[in-house]
Amino acid sequence: MASSVNPTVRRRRLGQELRKLRELKGMTAEEVAERLLVSQSKISRLENGRRSISQRDVRDLCGVYGVEDHRIVDSLMQMAKESRQQGWWHAFGDIPYSVYIGLETDAASLRVYEASLVPGLLQTPNYANAVTEGSWPEATAADVERRVQVRMRRQERITDPENPLRLWAVIDESALRRIVGNSAIMREQMEHLVEFSLQPHITVQVLPYAVGAHPGMYGKFSILEFHDPQDASTVYLEGITSDLYLEKPNDVQAYSVMYEHLRMQALNAEDSRRFILQVAEDWAEDGRKEGPNQQP
């Protein structure tokens, strides 16, 4: 059964504490790896929270760092135990971006720029299904259904009445114009976007073609920020076979500045709604030309 404890966040925080202990000891990751007869990459993955941490790992590292306070060791051991529990997403099997889901689940705010697609948190089930089928041609029907279910489950973060995720989305016009599925699905998706953009914690801005060249032309990215000041803001870059997480302050600052430029160049929220409604009408007109039997 999935636990309410977020294992991704536990691993991240535990890794931060272990890094602090290593630095207080004045040791490099290479020196620690040599003492424990493991690879340096393992120590790095433990510290950045990308690898599961066992209680034995914690015990061995505390031994190397000379931690004598049993309360500290016990606390770290408990964090290691919790980090190995399962989040809700594990019930759906092997999800390649599970680390990101864990971070998104615990985030306070999310800034996302999308160049080709409507952001996952704002997709309708029909659009999500068509996107998954188109971007993953070898997937079975069961694979597609599972991915769509995960995407819909993720959306509970922005509909949570007590602690909704603060979402700011800048979407390139290409994402609104590229047909995914059919015209009816696109019209439904545009109307869905407008509906969500009216929520006080959600801002949607459109970056129209007329802007020309802009900083987001290098590709999509997301910036996650957290309630706990100990959790560093993170830039997420999605890849085909692997993802990249940037946490260094200089990297986060560079992407934050880029995002501010994108927000400045995009239409404001009200003009964006009008723009999306016009695109919805364009898709409706296309649907009327294609015939009355088209369904989302």
Written overview of the protein:
Residues 18-73 form the HTH cro/C1-type domain. InterPro entries: Cro/C1-type_HTH, DUF5753, Lambda_DNA-bd_dom_sf. This is Helix-turn-helix transcriptional regulator. The protein is an alpha/beta fold and 296 residues long. It has helices spanning 7-25, 29-36, 40-47, 55-65, 70-83, 98-106, 125-135, 141-154, 156-159, 173-177, 183-197, 249-265, 269-290, and strands at 107-114, 166-172, 202-207, 221-226, 234-237, 244-246. It has a 6-stranded mixed β-sheet with strand order 3-2-1-4-5-6, sandwiched between helices. It is elongated, with a radius of gyration of 22 Å. The two termini are 34 Å apart. The relative contact order is 0.12.
Secondary structure elements and their pairing?
Elements: H1 7-25, H2 29-36, H3 40-47, H4 55-65, H5 70-83, H6 98-106, E1 107-114, H7 125-135, H8 141-154, H9 156-159, E2 166-172, H10 173-177, H11 183-197, E3 202-207, E4 221-226, E5 234-237, E6 244-246, H12 249-265, H13 269-290
Parallel strand pairs: 1-2, 2-3
Antiparallel strand pairs: 1-4, 4-5, 5-6
- Helical content (DSSP H or I, runs of 4+): 40-55%
Biggest sheet architecture: 6 strands, mixed
Gyration radius (Cα, Å) is: 22 Å
* Total count of helical runs of at least 4 residues: 13
From the spread of the alpha carbons, the general shape counts as: elongated
Beginning-to-end CA distance, first to last residue: 34 Å
Beta content: 5-15%
Structural class, from helix and strand content?
alpha/beta
Average pLDDT over all residues: 89
Return residue spans where pLDDT drops below 50 for at least 5 consecutive residues: none
Q: Based on DSSP secondary structure assignment, what is the total number of beta strands?
A: 6
Helices and strands, in N-to-C order? HHHHHHEHHHEHHEEEEHH
Strand order of the largest sheet: 3-2-1-4-5-6
